[in-house]
Specification:
The protein has helices spanning 50-55, 68-75, 78-82, 90-106, and strands spanning 2-4, 8-16, 23-27, 42-46, 83-84, 87-88, 114-119, 125-131, 136-144. By secondary structure, it is of the alpha+beta class. Strands 1-2-9-8-7 form a 5-stranded mixed beta sheet.
Length: 147
């Protein structure tokens, strides 16, 4: 979505997250068995990938190979960075994405003409671009998963 005001443009981007190989996302139901409307708990679950291990040999199944090396690798993985216990943590995701966007911005030619400012937000990533044209561009990235 986007909107234009007097001297500013606002964009809202919906960013869908995908689980890493060998994992799935599961939306937890509320106490009545219904899907909650907002701010749901999204559980990250292990999936069996033995078929891939046997067919391609490019990965071990996290579910069926719980040896020490695999546990060490898993604990230091991106999944550990983005989750609290077994649930996606949107605040951790936002904190992880902000420096990535900042670093990527510096590689673009527009970074020489516009300044990127990270705006405060705990559950999304908000940025403001300001340049010589005096038009402010605000972008908000909201994270979601598809069922």
């Amino acid at each position: 979505a986007w909107s234009v005001h007097e001297n500013s443009i606002a964009y809202c981007l919906l960013v869908f997250l995908r689980p890493p190989p060998g994992h799935s996302f599961s939306l937890e139901l509320d106490t009545t068995g219904q899907l909650p409307a907002r701010h749901s708990s999204i559980r990250v679950e292990l999936e069996c990938t033995c078929w891939r291990e046997q067919l391609l040999g490019d990965t071990l199944c996290f579910l069926h190979h719980p040896d020490d090396k695999l546990l060490r690798d898993r604990s230091s993985s991106l999944l550990h960075t983005l989750c609290t216990r077994s649930y996606l943590d949107v605040e951790k995701i936002a904190c992880w994405v902000r420096p990535l966007v900042r670093s990527a911005w510096l590689l673009l030619p527009q970074s020489h003409h516009c300044q990127l400012t990270v705006l405060p937000s705990s559950r999304s990533c908000r940025f403001q671009l300001t340049g010589t044209s005096k038009v402010n561009i605000c972008t908000e990235m909201i994270f979601a998963v598809q069922q």
